[in-house]
Amino acid sequence: MIRLTIRDKGSIEYFPDRFVVQLNDTHPAIGIAEFMRLLVDEYCIDWDRAWSLTRRSFAYTNHTLLPEALETWPEDLFKQILPRHLEIIYEINSRFLDHVRERFFGEPGEPSRLARMSLIDEGKGDGRRVRMANLACVGSMAINGVAELHTDLLKHTVLKDFHDMWPEKIRNKTNGVTPRRFIALANPPLAALLEETVGEGWLRRLEQLRGLEPHSEDRAFRERWRAIKRVAKERLSSHIRHVCGVLVDPDTLFDIQVKRIHEYKRQHLNVLHIISLYQRLKRDPSLEITPRTFVFGGKAAPGYRMAKLIIKLINSVADVINRDTQVNNALKVVFVPDFNVKISELIYPAADLSEQISTAGKEASGTGNMKFTMNGALTIGTLDGANVEIREAVGTENFFLFGKTVKQVAVTLASGYDAREVYEHDEVLRDAIDLINAGLFSHGDRDLFRPLTDSLLDSDPFLVCADFGDYVECQGRVGLAYKNVEEWSRKSILNVARCGRFSSDRAIREYSTDIWNVTPLRAEKSRG
Questions:
Q1: Per-domain residue ranges of the chain
Q2: Residue from 63, 210, 224, 420 carrying the catalytic annotation
Q3: Model confidence over 405-448: pLDDT tens digits?
Q4: Which of 90, 236, 247, 435 is most exposed by smallest CB count within 10 Å?
Q5: Active-site residue (options: 131, 222, 229, 259)
Q6: How far apart are CA 96 and CA 130, in angstroms?
Q7: Alpha-carbon distance 348 to 340, whole Å?
Q8: Which is catalytic among the residues 155, 173, 371, 490?
Q9: Is 233 known to be catalytic?
Q10: pTM reported for the whole predicted model
Q11: Does residue 425 have an active-site annotation?
Protein backbone atom coordinates (compact mmCIF):
# COMPACT_ATOMS: atom_id res chain seq x y z
CA MET A 1 0.00 0.00 0.00
CA ILE A 2 1.24 3.51 -0.82
CA ARG A 3 0.68 6.18 1.80
CA LEU A 4 1.01 9.91 1.14
CA THR A 5 0.51 12.57 3.77
CA ILE A 6 -1.13 15.61 2.18
CA ARG A 7 -0.92 18.77 4.28
CA ASP A 8 -3.24 20.73 2.02
CA LYS A 9 -4.20 20.98 -1.60
CA GLY A 10 -1.19 21.58 -3.79
CA SER A 11 1.56 20.39 -1.47
CA ILE A 12 2.88 17.11 -0.12
CA GLU A 13 4.15 17.18 3.45
CA TYR A 14 5.78 13.77 3.25
CA PHE A 15 6.70 11.69 0.30
CA PRO A 16 8.96 8.70 0.98
CA ASP A 17 12.33 8.79 -0.72
CA ARG A 18 11.51 5.62 -2.58
CA PHE A 19 8.53 3.39 -2.94
CA VAL A 20 7.77 1.43 -6.06
CA VAL A 21 4.74 0.04 -7.78
CA GLN A 22 6.17 -2.84 -9.80
CA LEU A 23 4.16 -3.23 -13.02
CA ASN A 24 3.89 -6.93 -13.75
CA ASP A 25 3.78 -6.71 -17.57
CA THR A 26 1.54 -4.15 -19.27
CA HIS A 27 -1.81 -5.08 -17.70
CA PRO A 28 -1.54 -2.66 -14.73
CA ALA A 29 0.13 0.16 -16.71
CA ILE A 30 -3.02 2.26 -16.52
CA GLY A 31 -1.91 2.83 -12.91
CA ILE A 32 0.54 5.45 -14.23
CA ALA A 33 -2.30 7.57 -15.62
CA GLU A 34 -4.41 6.97 -12.51
CA PHE A 35 -1.59 8.08 -10.22
CA MET A 36 -1.19 11.25 -12.27
CA ARG A 37 -4.94 11.84 -12.06
CA LEU A 38 -4.85 11.54 -8.27
CA LEU A 39 -1.94 13.93 -7.89
CA VAL A 40 -3.08 16.52 -10.42
CA ASP A 41 -6.87 16.41 -10.03
CA GLU A 42 -7.43 15.33 -6.44
CA TYR A 43 -4.45 17.02 -4.75
CA CYS A 44 -3.75 19.90 -7.15
CA ILE A 45 -0.07 19.08 -7.56
CA ASP A 46 1.40 20.87 -10.56
CA TRP A 47 2.06 18.68 -13.58
CA ASP A 48 5.88 18.69 -13.52
CA ARG A 49 6.01 17.80 -9.83
CA ALA A 50 3.35 15.12 -10.25
CA TRP A 51 5.17 13.58 -13.23
CA SER A 52 8.46 13.56 -11.36
CA LEU A 53 6.81 11.74 -8.44
CA THR A 54 5.09 9.31 -10.79
CA ARG A 55 8.26 8.39 -12.66
CA ARG A 56 10.01 7.76 -9.35
CA SER A 57 7.19 5.50 -8.21
CA PHE A 58 6.78 2.93 -10.98
CA ALA A 59 8.99 0.21 -12.44
CA TYR A 60 8.07 -2.10 -15.30
CA THR A 61 8.83 -5.80 -15.69
CA ASN A 62 8.43 -7.06 -19.24
CA HIS A 63 7.59 -10.76 -19.35
CA THR A 64 7.32 -11.45 -23.06
CA LEU A 65 8.46 -10.54 -26.54
CA LEU A 66 5.21 -11.68 -28.15
CA PRO A 67 3.19 -8.89 -29.81
CA GLU A 68 -0.12 -10.08 -28.35
CA ALA A 69 1.15 -9.47 -24.81
CA LEU A 70 2.31 -5.92 -25.56
CA GLU A 71 -1.16 -4.73 -24.73
CA THR A 72 -2.95 -2.02 -26.69
CA TRP A 73 -6.41 -0.53 -26.10
CA PRO A 74 -8.70 0.99 -28.74
CA GLU A 75 -8.75 4.75 -28.37
CA ASP A 76 -12.53 4.82 -28.79
CA LEU A 77 -12.96 2.40 -25.87
CA PHE A 78 -10.68 4.55 -23.75
CA LYS A 79 -12.77 7.65 -24.57
CA GLN A 80 -15.95 5.90 -23.42
CA ILE A 81 -14.63 4.31 -20.23
CA LEU A 82 -11.66 6.40 -19.06
CA PRO A 83 -11.91 9.80 -20.76
CA ARG A 84 -9.85 11.68 -18.14
CA HIS A 85 -7.11 9.05 -18.19
CA LEU A 86 -6.95 9.37 -21.98
CA GLU A 87 -6.52 13.15 -21.67
CA ILE A 88 -3.64 12.56 -19.26
CA ILE A 89 -2.05 10.03 -21.63
CA TYR A 90 -2.32 12.57 -24.47
CA GLU A 91 -0.50 15.11 -22.34
CA ILE A 92 2.17 12.61 -21.27
CA ASN A 93 2.65 11.65 -24.91
CA SER A 94 2.90 15.24 -26.16
CA ARG A 95 5.59 16.15 -23.64
CA PHE A 96 7.43 12.85 -24.13
CA LEU A 97 7.58 13.21 -27.91
CA ASP A 98 9.03 16.69 -27.48
CA HIS A 99 11.87 15.05 -25.54
CA VAL A 100 12.29 12.42 -28.26
CA ARG A 101 12.54 15.15 -30.93
CA GLU A 102 15.13 16.98 -28.87
CA ARG A 103 17.15 13.81 -28.18
CA PHE A 104 17.22 12.54 -31.77
CA PHE A 105 16.98 15.83 -33.64
CA GLY A 106 18.39 15.58 -37.16
CA GLU A 107 19.16 11.87 -36.96
CA PRO A 108 18.09 9.59 -39.85
CA GLY A 109 14.70 7.99 -39.35
CA GLU A 110 13.53 10.52 -36.77
CA PRO A 111 9.86 10.63 -37.96
CA SER A 112 9.53 6.85 -37.94
CA ARG A 113 11.14 6.73 -34.50
CA LEU A 114 8.58 9.20 -33.21
CA ALA A 115 5.78 7.05 -34.63
CA ARG A 116 7.18 3.90 -32.99
CA MET A 117 7.72 5.50 -29.58
CA SER A 118 4.42 7.37 -29.42
CA LEU A 119 1.95 6.20 -26.78
CA ILE A 120 -0.68 6.30 -29.54
CA ASP A 121 -0.52 3.89 -32.46
CA GLU A 122 -2.15 5.69 -35.38
CA GLY A 123 -3.17 2.35 -36.88
CA LYS A 124 -4.13 1.56 -40.45
CA GLY A 125 -7.01 -0.85 -40.31
CA ASP A 126 -8.55 -0.94 -36.84
CA GLY A 127 -8.12 2.66 -35.74
CA ARG A 128 -5.91 4.40 -33.20
CA ARG A 129 -4.82 2.44 -30.15
CA VAL A 130 -3.14 3.26 -26.84
CA ARG A 131 0.14 1.39 -26.39
CA MET A 132 0.33 0.29 -22.78
CA ALA A 133 3.92 -1.02 -23.04
CA ASN A 134 5.07 2.41 -24.25
CA LEU A 135 3.20 4.05 -21.38
CA ALA A 136 4.91 1.64 -18.95
CA CYS A 137 8.33 2.46 -20.41
CA VAL A 138 7.82 6.23 -20.32
CA GLY A 139 6.26 6.32 -16.87
CA SER A 140 8.72 4.02 -15.09
CA MET A 141 12.10 4.68 -13.56
CA ALA A 142 13.35 1.20 -14.49
CA ILE A 143 12.53 -1.51 -17.00
CA ASN A 144 13.65 -5.09 -16.63
CA GLY A 145 13.57 -8.35 -18.51
CA VAL A 146 13.42 -11.70 -16.74
CA ALA A 147 16.37 -13.60 -18.24
CA GLU A 148 19.68 -12.47 -19.67
CA LEU A 149 18.74 -13.47 -23.22
CA HIS A 150 15.30 -11.92 -22.92
CA THR A 151 16.70 -8.62 -21.63
CA ASP A 152 19.26 -8.49 -24.44
CA LEU A 153 16.49 -9.09 -26.99
CA LEU A 154 14.37 -6.34 -25.41
CA LYS A 155 17.23 -3.89 -25.84
CA HIS A 156 17.78 -4.78 -29.47
CA THR A 157 14.26 -5.55 -30.74
CA VAL A 158 10.97 -4.76 -29.01
CA LEU A 159 12.21 -1.86 -26.85
CA LYS A 160 15.20 -0.79 -28.92
CA ASP A 161 14.01 2.80 -29.32
CA PHE A 162 13.59 3.19 -25.56
CA HIS A 163 17.00 1.60 -24.97
CA ASP A 164 18.51 4.09 -27.42
CA MET A 165 16.93 6.94 -25.49
CA TRP A 166 17.69 5.63 -21.98
CA PRO A 167 20.61 3.16 -22.22
CA GLU A 168 20.78 2.74 -18.45
CA LYS A 169 17.07 2.10 -17.94
CA ILE A 170 16.69 -1.51 -19.12
CA ARG A 171 18.38 -4.10 -16.94
CA ASN A 172 18.06 -7.82 -16.24
CA LYS A 173 16.42 -9.56 -13.30
CA THR A 174 16.35 -13.28 -14.02
CA ASN A 175 13.25 -14.93 -12.60
CA GLY A 176 13.39 -17.22 -9.61
CA VAL A 177 11.03 -19.65 -7.90
CA THR A 178 10.59 -20.40 -4.23
CA PRO A 179 12.24 -23.60 -2.96
CA ARG A 180 9.92 -23.51 0.04
CA ARG A 181 6.99 -24.51 -2.14
CA PHE A 182 8.69 -26.34 -4.99
CA ILE A 183 11.09 -28.43 -2.90
CA ALA A 184 10.12 -28.35 0.78
CA LEU A 185 6.35 -28.55 0.28
CA ALA A 186 6.28 -30.45 -3.02
CA ASN A 187 9.05 -32.94 -2.28
CA PRO A 188 9.50 -33.55 1.49
CA PRO A 189 11.75 -36.63 1.12
CA LEU A 190 14.16 -34.66 -1.06
CA ALA A 191 14.05 -31.69 1.34
CA ALA A 192 14.92 -33.99 4.25
CA LEU A 193 17.90 -35.45 2.37
CA LEU A 194 19.13 -31.98 1.43
CA GLU A 195 18.97 -30.77 5.02
CA GLU A 196 20.75 -33.91 6.22
CA THR A 197 23.47 -33.41 3.63
CA VAL A 198 24.13 -29.65 3.53
CA GLY A 199 22.63 -28.54 6.84
CA GLU A 200 20.01 -25.97 7.80
CA GLY A 201 19.59 -22.69 5.96
CA TRP A 202 19.55 -23.96 2.38
CA LEU A 203 15.92 -22.89 1.91
CA ARG A 204 16.92 -19.26 2.47
CA ARG A 205 20.29 -19.53 0.75
CA LEU A 206 19.82 -22.04 -2.01
CA GLU A 207 23.47 -21.61 -3.01
CA GLN A 208 24.29 -23.90 -0.07
CA LEU A 209 23.18 -26.83 -2.23
CA ARG A 210 26.64 -26.67 -3.80
CA GLY A 211 27.55 -28.89 -0.89
CA LEU A 212 25.80 -31.75 -2.70
CA GLU A 213 28.40 -31.91 -5.45
CA PRO A 214 30.88 -34.29 -3.76
CA HIS A 215 28.02 -36.66 -2.95
CA SER A 216 27.26 -37.11 -6.64
CA GLU A 217 30.28 -39.45 -6.71
CA ASP A 218 28.94 -41.55 -3.82
CA ARG A 219 27.18 -44.70 -5.04
CA ALA A 220 25.19 -45.13 -1.83
CA PHE A 221 24.02 -41.50 -1.97
CA ARG A 222 22.95 -41.94 -5.59
CA GLU A 223 20.90 -44.97 -4.56
CA ARG A 224 19.10 -42.92 -1.90
CA TRP A 225 18.56 -40.21 -4.51
CA ARG A 226 16.89 -42.68 -6.89
CA ALA A 227 14.68 -44.01 -4.10
CA ILE A 228 13.36 -40.50 -3.45
CA LYS A 229 12.67 -40.01 -7.16
CA ARG A 230 10.88 -43.37 -7.24
CA VAL A 231 8.55 -42.28 -4.42
CA ALA A 232 7.69 -39.08 -6.32
CA LYS A 233 6.99 -41.05 -9.50
CA GLU A 234 4.73 -43.44 -7.57
CA ARG A 235 2.77 -40.46 -6.21
CA LEU A 236 2.25 -39.06 -9.69
CA SER A 237 1.40 -42.51 -11.08
CA SER A 238 -1.29 -42.88 -8.44
CA HIS A 239 -2.76 -39.49 -9.34
CA ILE A 240 -2.74 -40.36 -13.05
CA ARG A 241 -4.47 -43.67 -12.38
CA HIS A 242 -7.13 -41.99 -10.23
CA VAL A 243 -7.80 -38.98 -12.49
CA CYS A 244 -7.02 -40.30 -15.99
CA GLY A 245 -7.65 -44.01 -15.59
CA VAL A 246 -4.26 -44.80 -17.13
CA LEU A 247 -1.75 -47.18 -15.54
CA VAL A 248 1.81 -45.94 -15.89
CA ASP A 249 5.01 -47.62 -14.78
CA PRO A 250 7.17 -45.61 -12.35
CA ASP A 251 10.23 -47.44 -13.67
CA THR A 252 9.87 -45.82 -17.09
CA LEU A 253 11.50 -42.51 -18.03
CA PHE A 254 9.05 -39.79 -17.04
CA ASP A 255 9.30 -37.29 -19.91
CA ILE A 256 7.23 -34.24 -18.90
CA GLN A 257 6.09 -31.02 -20.55
CA VAL A 258 3.74 -28.89 -18.45
CA LYS A 259 3.19 -25.24 -19.32
CA ARG A 260 0.73 -22.95 -21.06
CA ILE A 261 -0.30 -24.42 -24.41
CA HIS A 262 1.09 -22.25 -27.18
CA GLU A 263 2.54 -22.86 -30.63
CA TYR A 264 5.86 -21.24 -29.69
CA LYS A 265 6.22 -23.62 -26.72
CA ARG A 266 5.92 -26.40 -29.32
CA GLN A 267 3.99 -29.13 -27.58
CA HIS A 268 3.28 -30.37 -31.12
CA LEU A 269 7.02 -30.91 -31.68
CA ASN A 270 6.94 -33.25 -28.69
CA VAL A 271 3.87 -35.04 -30.09
CA LEU A 272 5.49 -35.53 -33.50
CA HIS A 273 8.42 -37.24 -31.78
CA ILE A 274 6.02 -39.50 -29.86
CA ILE A 275 4.28 -40.44 -33.10
CA SER A 276 7.65 -41.24 -34.68
CA LEU A 277 8.47 -43.58 -31.78
CA TYR A 278 5.05 -45.20 -32.15
CA GLN A 279 5.66 -45.79 -35.84
CA ARG A 280 9.08 -47.32 -35.20
CA LEU A 281 7.60 -49.76 -32.71
CA LYS A 282 4.73 -50.67 -34.99
CA ARG A 283 7.14 -51.44 -37.82
CA ASP A 284 9.47 -53.43 -35.56
CA PRO A 285 7.80 -54.74 -32.38
CA SER A 286 11.13 -56.23 -31.27
CA LEU A 287 12.82 -52.81 -31.33
CA GLU A 288 14.47 -51.98 -28.03
CA ILE A 289 13.83 -48.42 -26.85
CA THR A 290 13.97 -46.82 -23.45
CA PRO A 291 10.41 -47.14 -22.08
CA ARG A 292 8.84 -43.75 -21.51
CA THR A 293 5.81 -42.16 -19.95
CA PHE A 294 5.06 -38.84 -21.65
CA VAL A 295 3.17 -36.43 -19.41
CA PHE A 296 1.58 -33.19 -20.61
CA GLY A 297 -0.30 -30.52 -18.75
CA GLY A 298 -1.36 -26.92 -19.28
CA LYS A 299 -4.17 -24.64 -20.32
CA ALA A 300 -4.99 -22.73 -23.47
CA ALA A 301 -6.44 -19.26 -23.86
CA PRO A 302 -10.23 -19.52 -24.45
CA GLY A 303 -10.11 -18.21 -28.03
CA TYR A 304 -6.85 -19.85 -29.08
CA ARG A 305 -8.11 -22.46 -31.55
CA MET A 306 -4.71 -23.87 -32.53
CA ALA A 307 -3.72 -24.41 -28.89
CA LYS A 308 -6.94 -26.29 -28.27
CA LEU A 309 -6.29 -28.39 -31.36
CA ILE A 310 -2.86 -29.28 -29.96
CA ILE A 311 -4.52 -30.42 -26.71
CA LYS A 312 -6.95 -32.51 -28.75
CA LEU A 313 -4.08 -34.07 -30.70
CA ILE A 314 -2.19 -34.97 -27.52
CA ASN A 315 -5.24 -36.68 -26.06
CA SER A 316 -6.05 -38.45 -29.32
CA VAL A 317 -2.51 -39.76 -29.71
CA ALA A 318 -2.62 -40.87 -26.07
CA ASP A 319 -5.86 -42.75 -26.66
CA VAL A 320 -4.43 -44.69 -29.61
CA ILE A 321 -1.06 -45.50 -28.01
CA ASN A 322 -2.38 -46.39 -24.57
CA ARG A 323 -4.86 -48.87 -26.06
CA ASP A 324 -2.33 -50.54 -28.36
CA THR A 325 -0.97 -53.60 -26.53
CA GLN A 326 1.79 -53.90 -29.12
CA VAL A 327 3.43 -50.68 -27.92
CA ASN A 328 1.95 -49.64 -24.57
CA ASN A 329 4.53 -51.50 -22.53
CA ALA A 330 7.15 -49.14 -23.97
CA LEU A 331 5.09 -45.96 -24.47
CA LYS A 332 2.35 -44.25 -22.50
CA VAL A 333 0.99 -40.75 -23.05
CA VAL A 334 -1.03 -38.78 -20.50
CA PHE A 335 -2.55 -35.30 -20.47
CA VAL A 336 -3.08 -34.42 -16.80
CA PRO A 337 -6.20 -32.23 -16.54
CA ASP A 338 -6.62 -29.02 -14.55
CA PHE A 339 -2.93 -28.20 -14.28
CA ASN A 340 -2.40 -25.81 -11.37
CA VAL A 341 0.09 -25.16 -8.61
CA LYS A 342 -1.26 -27.97 -6.42
CA ILE A 343 -1.04 -30.50 -9.25
CA SER A 344 2.40 -29.20 -10.14
CA GLU A 345 3.60 -30.25 -6.68
CA LEU A 346 3.04 -33.84 -7.81
CA ILE A 347 4.53 -33.35 -11.26
CA TYR A 348 7.83 -31.48 -10.80
CA PRO A 349 9.34 -33.95 -8.28
CA ALA A 350 8.45 -36.93 -10.51
CA ALA A 351 10.10 -35.75 -13.72
CA ASP A 352 13.19 -37.42 -15.11
CA LEU A 353 13.25 -35.22 -18.20
CA SER A 354 12.04 -31.61 -18.42
CA GLU A 355 10.84 -30.49 -21.85
CA GLN A 356 11.81 -26.84 -22.46
CA ILE A 357 11.61 -26.83 -26.25
CA SER A 358 10.30 -23.39 -27.24
CA THR A 359 11.58 -21.68 -30.36
CA ALA A 360 14.72 -19.76 -29.45
CA GLY A 361 13.95 -16.10 -28.83
CA LYS A 362 10.27 -16.57 -27.94
CA GLU A 363 10.27 -17.55 -24.25
CA ALA A 364 11.10 -14.64 -21.95
CA SER A 365 12.36 -16.81 -19.11
CA GLY A 366 10.24 -19.71 -17.99
CA THR A 367 9.97 -20.79 -14.38
CA GLY A 368 8.85 -24.38 -14.84
CA ASN A 369 12.34 -25.07 -16.15
CA MET A 370 13.69 -23.98 -12.74
CA LYS A 371 11.15 -26.01 -10.75
CA PHE A 372 12.06 -29.15 -12.67
CA THR A 373 15.78 -28.53 -12.25
CA MET A 374 15.63 -28.06 -8.50
CA ASN A 375 13.82 -31.40 -8.24
CA GLY A 376 16.52 -33.25 -10.15
CA ALA A 377 15.09 -33.45 -13.66
CA LEU A 378 17.48 -33.14 -16.57
CA THR A 379 16.48 -30.66 -19.27
CA ILE A 380 16.08 -31.14 -22.99
CA GLY A 381 15.84 -27.68 -24.43
CA THR A 382 16.77 -24.91 -26.78
CA LEU A 383 18.88 -21.85 -26.01
CA ASP A 384 15.82 -19.85 -25.07
CA GLY A 385 14.87 -17.82 -22.02
CA ALA A 386 16.44 -18.93 -18.76
CA ASN A 387 17.43 -22.25 -20.37
CA VAL A 388 20.62 -20.44 -21.33
CA GLU A 389 21.44 -19.63 -17.71
CA ILE A 390 20.32 -23.03 -16.43
CA ARG A 391 22.65 -24.75 -18.89
CA GLU A 392 25.52 -22.51 -17.86
CA ALA A 393 24.81 -23.21 -14.18
CA VAL A 394 24.34 -26.99 -14.25
CA GLY A 395 27.02 -27.68 -16.87
CA THR A 396 26.65 -28.25 -20.60
CA GLU A 397 27.25 -31.97 -20.11
CA ASN A 398 24.18 -32.14 -17.83
CA PHE A 399 21.77 -30.52 -20.28
CA PHE A 400 20.42 -31.96 -23.56
CA LEU A 401 20.71 -29.13 -26.08
CA PHE A 402 19.14 -29.04 -29.53
CA GLY A 403 17.66 -26.60 -32.00
CA LYS A 404 18.47 -23.37 -33.74
CA THR A 405 19.80 -20.37 -31.86
CA VAL A 406 18.12 -16.96 -31.88
CA LYS A 407 20.37 -15.81 -34.72
CA GLN A 408 19.81 -19.02 -36.69
CA VAL A 409 16.05 -18.66 -36.27
CA ALA A 410 16.20 -15.12 -37.67
CA VAL A 411 18.39 -16.18 -40.60
CA THR A 412 16.15 -19.16 -41.37
CA LEU A 413 12.96 -17.11 -41.41
CA ALA A 414 14.58 -14.34 -43.46
CA SER A 415 15.97 -16.69 -46.08
CA GLY A 416 12.67 -17.91 -47.47
CA TYR A 417 12.23 -20.90 -45.17
CA ASP A 418 10.07 -23.61 -46.75
CA ALA A 419 8.73 -26.09 -44.19
CA ARG A 420 7.23 -28.26 -46.91
CA GLU A 421 10.68 -28.77 -48.38
CA VAL A 422 11.92 -29.98 -44.97
CA TYR A 423 8.92 -32.31 -44.81
CA GLU A 424 9.69 -33.75 -48.25
CA HIS A 425 13.30 -34.53 -47.33
CA ASP A 426 12.77 -35.84 -43.77
CA GLU A 427 11.12 -39.25 -43.96
CA VAL A 428 10.49 -39.48 -40.21
CA LEU A 429 8.77 -36.10 -40.11
CA ARG A 430 6.81 -36.83 -43.26
CA ASP A 431 5.55 -40.17 -41.95
CA ALA A 432 4.45 -38.61 -38.64
CA ILE A 433 2.51 -35.77 -40.29
CA ASP A 434 1.03 -38.13 -42.88
CA LEU A 435 -0.20 -40.45 -40.13
CA ILE A 436 -2.04 -37.54 -38.51
CA ASN A 437 -3.56 -36.55 -41.85
CA ALA A 438 -4.58 -40.15 -42.55
CA GLY A 439 -7.05 -39.92 -39.66
CA LEU A 440 -5.52 -42.53 -37.34
CA PHE A 441 -5.85 -40.21 -34.37
CA SER A 442 -9.24 -38.81 -35.34
CA HIS A 443 -11.36 -41.90 -36.05
CA GLY A 444 -10.80 -41.56 -39.77
CA ASP A 445 -11.59 -37.84 -39.92
CA ARG A 446 -8.85 -36.50 -42.17
CA ASP A 447 -9.85 -32.88 -41.69
CA LEU A 448 -9.85 -32.57 -37.90
CA PHE A 449 -6.13 -31.84 -37.51
CA ARG A 450 -5.65 -30.39 -40.99
CA PRO A 451 -5.46 -26.76 -39.73
CA LEU A 452 -2.53 -27.76 -37.53
CA THR A 453 -0.63 -29.75 -40.16
CA ASP A 454 -1.36 -27.14 -42.84
CA SER A 455 0.06 -24.46 -40.56
CA LEU A 456 3.21 -26.53 -40.08
CA LEU A 457 3.71 -27.14 -43.79
CA ASP A 458 2.57 -23.80 -45.19
CA SER A 459 4.12 -21.36 -42.71
CA ASP A 460 5.64 -22.99 -39.60
CA PRO A 461 6.47 -19.66 -37.94
CA PHE A 462 7.95 -21.40 -34.89
CA LEU A 463 10.21 -23.74 -36.90
CA VAL A 464 8.80 -27.02 -35.64
CA CYS A 465 9.77 -28.79 -38.85
CA ALA A 466 13.17 -27.11 -38.98
CA ASP A 467 14.10 -28.31 -35.47
CA PHE A 468 12.42 -31.73 -35.68
CA GLY A 469 15.41 -33.74 -36.91
CA ASP A 470 17.73 -32.28 -34.29
CA TYR A 471 15.13 -32.87 -31.59
CA VAL A 472 14.67 -36.52 -32.52
CA GLU A 473 18.44 -37.06 -32.54
CA CYS A 474 18.74 -35.39 -29.13
CA GLN A 475 15.91 -37.53 -27.74
CA GLY A 476 17.87 -40.56 -28.93
CA ARG A 477 20.76 -39.38 -26.76
CA VAL A 478 18.36 -38.97 -23.84
CA GLY A 479 17.18 -42.56 -24.20
CA LEU A 480 20.72 -43.92 -24.21
CA ALA A 481 21.77 -41.74 -21.27
CA TYR A 482 18.85 -42.91 -19.13
CA LYS A 483 20.01 -46.50 -19.45
CA ASN A 484 23.17 -45.60 -17.54
CA VAL A 485 21.44 -45.41 -14.17
CA GLU A 486 24.42 -44.30 -12.11
CA GLU A 487 25.48 -41.56 -14.52
CA TRP A 488 21.92 -40.24 -14.87
CA SER A 489 21.66 -40.05 -11.06
CA ARG A 490 24.96 -38.18 -10.88
CA LYS A 491 23.74 -35.64 -13.43
CA SER A 492 20.45 -35.29 -11.54
CA ILE A 493 22.27 -34.53 -8.29
CA LEU A 494 24.45 -31.93 -10.01
CA ASN A 495 21.36 -30.22 -11.45
CA VAL A 496 20.03 -29.71 -7.93
CA ALA A 497 23.43 -28.78 -6.50
CA ARG A 498 23.85 -25.99 -9.04
CA CYS A 499 20.32 -24.52 -9.05
CA GLY A 500 20.93 -21.90 -6.35
CA ARG A 501 20.79 -18.94 -8.73
CA PHE A 502 17.17 -19.72 -9.54
CA SER A 503 15.70 -19.08 -6.11
CA SER A 504 13.17 -16.26 -5.90
CA ASP A 505 15.09 -15.03 -2.84
CA ARG A 506 18.01 -14.10 -5.09
CA ALA A 507 15.64 -12.40 -7.53
CA ILE A 508 13.97 -10.37 -4.77
CA ARG A 509 17.36 -9.35 -3.36
CA GLU A 510 18.33 -8.02 -6.81
CA TYR A 511 15.07 -6.09 -7.21
CA SER A 512 15.51 -4.68 -3.71
CA THR A 513 19.03 -3.37 -4.22
CA ASP A 514 18.94 -2.39 -7.90
CA ILE A 515 15.40 -1.08 -8.41
CA TRP A 516 13.46 -0.60 -5.17
CA ASN A 517 16.35 0.65 -3.02
CA VAL A 518 15.00 -1.09 0.08
CA THR A 519 16.63 -3.21 2.75
CA PRO A 520 15.07 -6.34 4.23
CA LEU A 521 13.56 -6.38 7.70
CA ARG A 522 14.31 -9.29 9.99
CA ALA A 523 11.13 -11.12 10.94
CA GLU A 524 10.69 -11.64 14.66
CA LYS A 525 9.42 -15.01 15.81
CA SER A 526 5.98 -14.90 17.37
CA ARG A 527 5.97 -15.29 21.15
CA GLY A 528 2.35 -16.37 21.20
A1: 21-172, 179-503
A2: 63
A3: 999 999 999 999 999 999 999 999 999 999 999 999 999 999 99
A4: 247
A5: 259
A6: 15
A7: 12
A8: 371
A9: no
A10: 0.94
A11: no
